[in-house]
Amino acid sequence: MELVHLGKRVILAGLDTTFANEPFGPVPNLMALADEVTKLSAVCMVCGAPAIHTQRLGQSQELVVVGAAGLYEARCRTHFEPFTDEHHSEQLDLLTA
Ligand SMILES: [Zn+2]
């Protein structure tokens, strides 16, 4: 806010939700303080519809996993499968069956 009070224009970009579809760090609070918010969408990697979710393709439960392509995909609401312990357990069951 110091920069804003000095007359500076501050522009931020980032994801607003995590791979688990939960608020991501300070981004939601910053959005609340902003004069203007533009939410962009990607293209769902399954069906081509506008995608607002980040689908993690790996099994890591870390909040941030940085890596190459293949760790995340843009997904629409229909094709997004949020990570849950239950979902993880089902996947483990499939692997061990
Ligand atoms: Zn889709």
Summed up, what is this model?
The chain is α+β, with helices and mostly antiparallel strands. Helix content is 24%, strand content 12%.
Radius of gyration: 17 Å
Please state the overall shape, judged from the principal axes of the Cα atoms.
elongated
Alpha-beta classification: alpha+beta
Q: What is the residue-averaged pLDDT? A: 84
Bound molecules: zinc ion
Distance between the termini: 54 Å
Order of helices and strands: HHEEEEH
CATH topology: Wheat Germ Agglutinin (Isolectin 2), domain 1
Largest sheet: 2 strands, antiparallel
The tally of structural domains comes to: 1
Oligomer: single chain
Task: Give, in spatial order, the strands making up the sheet with the most strands.
Answer: 1-2
Strand content: 5-15%
Question: Can you count the helices?
Answer: 3
Low-confidence stretches: none
What CATH architecture do you see? Answer: 2-Layer Sandwich
Query: In CATH's first tier, which class applies?
Result: Alpha Beta
